[in-house]
Amino acid sequence: MSHFRRTGCVVAAASLLVGSTLWARGAVMRWGPLGHRVVAEVAMARISPAVADETRRLLGGQTIADVASWADDVRRDQPNTAPWHYVNIEITDSAYVPARDCKENNCIVAALDAQIAVLSDHSRSDADRATALRWVVHLVGDIHQPLHAGERGDRGGNDIKVTFNGKRTTLHALWDSGLLLSYGQTDGEMVRDILDDLGRRSDLAGLLATKPEQWATGSHNQARDYVYRYLPQSLDITPEYAEGARPIIRERLLRAGIRLAQVLEHALKG
User: Fold this and answer.
1) Catalytic site residue from 30, 37, 134, 138
2) Which of 186, 182, 190, 185 is closest to 238 using CA atoms?
3) Which domain holds residue 146?
4) Is 220 a catalytic residue?
5) pLDDT per residue over 96-105, tens digit each?
6) E strands present in the chain
7) Which of 57, 84, 235, 236 is deepest in the core (most CB within 10 A)?
């Protein structure tokens, strides 16, 4: 049975103990590189050979998994792109409203749409399309992280300090990497579990018949319905909270991976 499918307090406590070592070694890791690499590897398993070849051509021989965290790596040198990684939809709101949530088209929904358009435009230079490809791979991952789309006046959980495995962190960092690392799986193990699940799913057509606006709304809903609703008042993250988050994180990674694959197929097919 996979780590993602285990339940129960004993298993939760064991996985958190293993994960605490991983987290200590990789404290700077966020939803990427681990989460972003998982998303990219799921997509790589689903795109056609021709599209995979085109991604490697644009990236100078690298794979999309190799560049999945590029947008975070350049963020310090390109501070104007910081708003491209998120959209702040208050959890009390029920839908994404561009005029309210994405003023001047400066949010992840608009940025992702814009970069997909560049990637899909075969009249653009390879350099422009390669940069757009890096952005698309990363932003599809970000938009599926609940706290990159839902918040309650706390900058997507960045202003909420929590304790997890005896360490102080923020709620946002917890959902970016702390929980994912605590489950003790490698990217390859996560990808295998997700691909196994995809082979049994009957709802993929519906999941793929959506756009970035709906992806952001889905993340917002998870922030509302789980991240904040079940957050312990003490702000001490319990094994039960971490274990309850496991299937949510797994599903967000799955959806991001299959949607990224679809975007790349549509954008890069000759």
Assistant:
1) 138
2) 182
3) 3-268
4) no
5) 999 999 999 9
6) 89-90, 150-151, 161-164, 167-170
7) 84
Contact 15, 182 (CB under 8 A): yes
- Cα-based distances in Å from 202 to 74, 207, 208: 38, 10, 12
Tell me the pLDDT of the chain (270 aa) as tens digits: 444 443 333 333 333 333 433 333 333 334 568 999 999 999 999 999 999 999 999 999 999 999 999 999 999 999 999 999 999 999 999 899 999 999 999 999 999 999 999 999 999 999 999 999 999 999 999 999 999 999 999 999 999 999 999 999 999 999 999 999 999 999 999 999 999 999 999 999 999 999 999 999 999 999 999 999 999 999 999 999 999 999 999 999 999 999 999 999 999 986
- Tokens (6 digits) for 94: 């029920």
CA atoms within 13 A on the CB side of 216: 31
Structure tokens at 145: 């992280």
Please confirm, yes or no, whether 148 is among the known catalytic residues. yes
Among 256, 177, 171, 244, CA closest to 218: 256
CATH (domain of 165): 1.10.575.10
In the 8-state DSSP scheme, what is residue 124? S
Q: Which residues, 6 or more positions from 185, have their beta carbon under 8 angstroms from its beta carbon?
A: 2, 3, 4, 193
Query: For the whole model, what pTM was predicted?
Result: 0.88
The reply to whether 72 belongs to the active site is: yes
**Number of domains into which the chain is organized:** 1
Q: What is the largest CA-CA distance in the chain?
A: 56
CB 157 within 8 A of CB 149: no
